[in-house]
Amino acid sequence: MRISELSDRSGVTVASIKYYLREGLLPEGVRTSPTQAVYDEAHVRRLATIRALLDAGVGIADARAVLATLDDPPAGPHLLLGAAHAAVIPHATGDLDLAAAQALAERLGWQEGDCDTAVLEGLARALQTLERAGFVVSDDIMDAYLAAVESIAAAEIAGTPTTSPEDAVRYVVLGSVLVEPLLLALRRVAEQVASARRFDADTTLS
Amino acid sequence: MRISELSDRSGVTVASIKYYLREGLLPEGVRTSPTQAVYDEAHVRRLATIRALLDAGVGIADARAVLATLDDPPAGPHLLLGAAHAAVIPHATGDLDLAAAQALAERLGWQEGDCDTAVLEGLARALQTLERAGFVVSDDIMDAYLAAVESIAAAEIAGTPTTSPEDAVRYVVLGSVLVEPLLLALRRVAEQVASARRFDADTTLS
Question: Across-strand partners of B36?
Answer without folding.
Answer: B33
